[in-house]
Amino acid sequence: MANPSKAKGSAFARLIANYLAEALGDDRIDRRVETGGKDKGDIGAVRLRGHRIVIEAKNHARMEIGQWLKEAVVEAQNDSALVGIVVHKRRGFGRGGDQYATMRLSDLVAILSVSEAPSKLGLAEPKGQP
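-> structure tokens emitted (130 positions)
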């Protein structure tokens, strides 16, 4: 018998992965398979100017944002990612784009800094896939 909580979480992660892939026009974005010890988030291949972004998807009745953010930060470190973001279920809203995204303010600053033109920040453009 399948675990209903895991099934609910998997379905939510699939919803978010599908939404991001379509909204960003990147079919590489997908749900990650659970890998055990060194978890790297629920959604893979999200990038900003070549930097990885870890997405941790949560579909729980009670919000535990502090714990979720700790998890996202560790998973971002495991993946050598720029930041970790928690995407969590917004009750009463079923579309991917209507869900909540939560991050530390320092992570928002990192994203906004990378979003600036690299030359304006004195940075070289990252190599590899955007």
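Residues 5 and 43 are 18 Å apart (CA to CA).
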